[in-house]
Predict the structure.
Amino acid sequence: MLIVYRRKRKTYKTQLGAMLLLALASTASVIIQCVNQGRALLALWGSEAALCYDLGGAASIMISKIVQDNMKTALIYDYAVLGIYIFSNVLADALLLYRCYIIWEKDLRVVFLPLLGYLCNIVFGILGLTYNTKLVFEFWILAVVENVVLAALIT
């Protein structure tokens, strides 16, 4: 990053900003996942300790409610991590598309199909995050195909 910062070109500053955003997004994702796992372990430990004793009807319902609330919170954290992943992937693919565009001397014919895949990937990511989580699988498949194609075009 230091080499990119020392060179005084406009596009390098944009790329540096994108790299910093990717670093921040991945750090936030790791933090959210650690918090989520810690909450899940604490909830599991608490529910197992409570279930070792026969507490009766009302106490068992209360423990069940605590576990359900922790599962809802975990689901919210999972959506946050998924949103960060989609954001990171869209940003990284934009950088790859730009690199491919520059390497192929700004020829739009070469970049057209990867750009179309990129736009479809954005749509799948947004729809998968908001409406139907089953579309996330299509997002991942399209992301892998797009990354392989762009990597092949760049090398």
